[in-house]
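Quick one, T. Sequence first:
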Amino acid sequence: MWYPDNTGARMGVNELVFAIEEAITRHELKVGDRLPPQRILAYKLGVNPTTVSRAYQRAAQKGLVGGQIGRGTYVLGNSNAAMFAQAIGVSDALKINLSINKLRCDEVILKLNKQIEAANTLANTPQYYEYISNDLVLRFQRAVSQWLDTCRQVSFNENQILALPSCQYGLQMIFTRLLNAGDAILVDEFTAPGIITAAKQRGLRLFTCKGDEQGITPEGLASAAKQTGARMLVTIPSHHSPLGFSQSEARRRALADEVRRLDLLLVEEDIYGMFDTPAPVSGYIPEHSLLVSGFSKCLSGGHRASFIASANPVLHKLRENIVETAWLVSASAASHIITAIEHGLIDKAIQHCLAEMKRRNALLNKRLGLQLPLTSPHHWIASGVLDIRGLKAVGVDVAEARHFAVNPLDDPLSHCRLSVNGVDDETYEQGLNLLAGFVQKQAV
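Structure tokens:
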């Protein structure tokens, strides 16, 4: 258990908040770690419990920590301190990071982005460097509508598209504008850290739905909705993070029918949807859903232009907050995505990324003797197959189950998420060599 150094001057609220932030930055406190109970920490520091309580509240306001009754206070993964610690790689022992999914701008993706830049009629004009105009926002909405129709097989008109700077921002805005602190939302038993972080920052209560190998079942959804009174379901049907599965068309239709019957609002994170064949669940119930997606996983993570698509009236409520939506989308990013869609280059990027995932997964399966899905960017693997502590000891970092768990885990190292994106080919090969050697050593 972490405790701040109190050998110096007496620690007040600001000093304790600073100590927490510094500990996260130095990786003394990692994402998911639990902070000491307030009364115990107050006793250790020799301060009033109110001081610790106020410090924890202020740390939560800064996005450093979050918590729920009965679970304590935990370090969140979306704060500047946590992301900085992850970015600088503070631990020398972790040489190869297979925990993060991100787009690698290889030679093919770089060439495609250069072609888009050359074809972008807005480039090198004043509008390219100015705040985005209403006309460009409308063009972006039209382009996204076209792309959803051709690539994702769902129909939303331009007025049903809301421009956003990122999917994570979209989730935060949905929770902030449509829910109140203390409201309940339904999620998978394991879900994306961004969803957990955004919910905790808003003070929402997360409840899980029972599921199977395809995630939430209609029966599990109905039971959880009845028990909790929750009116919102947040889930990831395509290449679920961290579990890696993609729901069948039959399951998607069954879930859509249940969402409609229960009169819920579905928030569908579709960031990897372009690599999947079934249409989004939102396509079956556009009036009951908010489809959150973007292009950072297939074309350019540096161009911050994502969107929400919906036929639900709440979209108009979200659109009213212009500063939080289109105002934060840059003209350069929007015009880049528009050009990519209009010239068919985004489809080429998707096909290339999909081919790369298949190639890397085939290598992973061959080297480790597994049969993991070829089209998934990440995999959920039991500790019996890959022991997390052992992996880190040999220099491979994977994402631990505790980062994705909604409820406390008896064994936070029971599973890990292993990602095949995020590192170059040479580093990936080195990682596979270490993994294969580790597995062989375990088998002896």
